[in-house]
Design goal:
heterodimer, A: 259 residues, mainly alpha, B: 326 residues, alpha/beta, Rossmann fold, Alpha-Beta Plaits, six-stranded mixed β-sheet, 30% strand, binds adenosine-5'-triphosphate, binds magnesium ion
Chain lengths: 259, 326
């Protein structure tokens, strides 16, 4: 446990010693801010119309902040992560392989698993800081409406799981090469493809469509975004994370054998 | 302290190390010598648990590298060929990180950092970014990081590569001062370094051990001949023929020729001074003797002789490895 933290701390420091952390944070702030703003504007517009409607017909239908705003914001984060997450994970192993520092880690009294989990945790903490940033925006919602706190927790739990899937898969890809750009591109390509599969399959029925729908990461965020913690989605995400970390461990082991 | 038995390491079809066995006693300094690609780094990587051996058994301080890697790693300080350093870290941060990885923490860590940076002359650059350091300083940080947990065993891959002459001397002194308490294996291309610092030298070529002994014994054993440099004004073929007839001369090889002059390297049997005979032979034949100079055989030349003749016997370097692998 102590060793995992030593590695995680070093990774986190490395993000902030290099421009990566700042680029990721800035891009997230801008993109999320823009989406947040346009969503909020649409929402206000609806609310305005609803108020007029109420005046005309004498009945007020309460608008649901969770349904209309939070849900689309969760999707926004999921999409932004498609290309931000590879930027976070691409260096994790590729850089160590390139500079030879992997030799220090692997000749220190740590297990491979501790190294892998440490790196995962370091990347996760950077991702968590993105989520915290997005929460600051969402605080604004509390000024305008009364978002359901429980639903918000479910939504963020979903994002934590989804993000961890991206991170663990990106971590695995980073072990395959000593070139960060390759690791990053592979990650982005894979994540984007998984996203497209899910998007396309939402229009198709049939078995293949269902399978595609099941495989895609983003389709499983749907229930969470509505404030529902579905066991099946949770199990799906946890299995993807577990499998990716397992494959990472195998890959690191084979790095040793081939090196 | 270190036991290696029948170590073989293959990379795919290339055999990097073949059936190497040796042992190092506590407090000893063993030097690895060998040309590029001999398998020094590979052997060290297996010792430190970075690479698993293809065949063979390696134990350090009684622990098998494959069975109990963590116990072995706790006891080894390793300086790889390229010092494994993070360019974004400052020198102190790097040493602290290396220390924590090795299980040193708190006050003890602070104290160790101060000690090793003193020993490796890093005290003047504690806050410099490693990416901004010169090669020699990076090498020193690498060495400091290897020493940070005061390990029983030190494995140093070319510890003085890239250092300035003053620092080379300092580092050698440091290494010799560490012996006794620590067991050290180092590799080097600089033979005087091996001769001065190591209690025992192992010459490796093409993955095999070609010689292993104390530097003194190696020199004595291998200095079976002496070499003379000779520059003569005369026809090359005839001069060569005449010189090789002088008693005590074992080999004559022309090294250079130009405007009527020929330079020869004449190998003679040890203990026989043939300078007079050589001079007489040249003068009596009516050629001009321009230079006659004995060349001492340094460990460098012994090394060259050993490694080049060995590989010639084996059908030369990389080639032999391919055939061995198939
Ligand atoms: N990762 C690798 N994959 C394939 N072959 C390798 C690998 N690393 C080393 N080799 C081969 O193994 C052999 C021994 O290499 P090694 O690095 O151990 O030599 P060395 O004695 O350390 O040489 P140098 O003096 O140049 O440092 C070489 O023929 C080399 O080409
Ligand atoms: Mg080497």
């Amino acid at each position: 446990m102590k060793n995992i933290w030593i590695i995680a701390r070093k990774e986190l420091a490395a993000y902030f010693h290099s421009p990566i952390a700042y680029i990721v944070l800035a891009m997230f702030t801008v993109l999320f801010g823009f989406i947040f703003y346009s969503n909020l504007r649409d929402f206000m517009m609806e609310q305005f119309l609803a108020a007029q409607y109420a005046q005309m017909y004498g009945q007020l239908t309460p608008l649901n902040v969770n349904e209309s705003v939070i849900r689309s914001l969760v999707y926004a984060i999921a999409v932004i992560c498609l290309f931000l997450m590879p930027m976070i994970t691409m260096r994790l192993f590729a850089e160590e392989k390139k500079t030879g520092t992997i030799e220090l880690l692997m000749t220190s009294p740590l297990t491979d698993l501790e190294i892998i989990l440490g790196k995962f945790l370091g990347a996760f903490l950077l991702y968590a800081s993105l989520l915290v940033l997005s929460l600051l925006y969402i605080l604004i919602l509390f000024l305008y409406g009364n978002p359901d706190g429980k639903a918000l927790i479910a939504a963020y739990l979903g994002l934590v799981l989804l993000g961890s899937c991206y991170l663990s898969l990106g971590l695995m890809l980073s072990t395959l090469t000593r070139n960060q750009v390759i690791a990053g591109s592979l990650g982005f390509g894979l994540f984007f493809m998984l996203y497209l599969i899910g998007w396309a399959s939402s229009y198709s029925t049939g078995q293949l469509g269902q399978l595609a729908n099941y495989i895609s990461f983003t389709t499983h965020i749907d229930n969470f975004s509505k404030g529902v913690i579905d066991l099946r989605d949770t199990v799906y995400y946890l299995s993807v994370i577990g499998l990716s970390l397992f494959l990472t461990a195998r890959s690191v082991e084979s790095v040793r054998w081939r090196a | 302290m270190i036991e290696v038995q029948g170590l073989t390491k293959r990379y795919g079809r290339t055999v990097a190390v073949q059936d190497v066995s040796f042992s190092v006693k506590k407090g000893e300094i063993l030097g690895f010598l060998g040309p590029n690609g001999a398998g020094k780094t590979t052997t060290m990587r297996v010792l430190t648990g970075f690479l698993p051996p293809t065949l063979g058994k390696v134990t350090v301080a009684g622990y098998d590298v494959m069975q109990e890697p963590l116990e072995v790693k706790r006891r080894i300080g390793y300086l790889p060929e390229t010092p494994p350093l993070y360019p974004d870290m400052r020198v102190m941060e790097m040493l602290a990180f290396a220390g924590r990885l090795k299980g040193v923490s708190g006050n003890q860590l602070k104290q160790r950092i101060a000690e090793v940076s003193e020993k490796t002359a890093l005290s003047d650059v504690p806050r410099k970014l490693i990416g901004h350091l010169s090669k020699g300083y990076r090498q020193r940080v690498g060495l400091a990081a290897a020493l940070i947990h005061n390990p029983e065993v030190l494995v140093l891959d070319e510890p003085t590569a890239g250092l300035d002459p003053k620092q080379i001397i300092e580092t050698r002194k440091l290494i010799t001062s560490l012996a006794g308490e620590h067991t050290i294996i180092l590799s080097t291309h600089i033979l005087p370094e091996a001769a001065n610092t190591c209690g025992r030298v192992m010459i490796i070529n093409a993955g095999k051990v070609v010689a292993e002994d104390t530097p003194e014994n190696l020199t004595a054993r291998l200095q079976g001949y002496e070499t003379m440099n000779l520059v003569v004004e005369g026809p090359e073929a005839e001069v060569r023929e005449r010189l090789s007839r002088v008693t005590g001369v074992s080999r004559v090889s022309p090294s250079q020729a130009g405007n009527g002059r020929v330079a020869f390297a004449v190998q003679t049997v040890k203990g026989q001074d043939v300078r007079k005979e050589l001079a007489r032979a040249v003068v009596e034949s009516g050629w001009g003797l321009l230079e006659l100079r004995p060349v001492g055989l340094s460990l460098e030349e012994i090394f060259l002789k050993l490694t080049t003749t060995e590989s010639a016997d084996d059908n030369a370097g990389e080639n032999s490895k391919e055939t061995a692998a198939s």
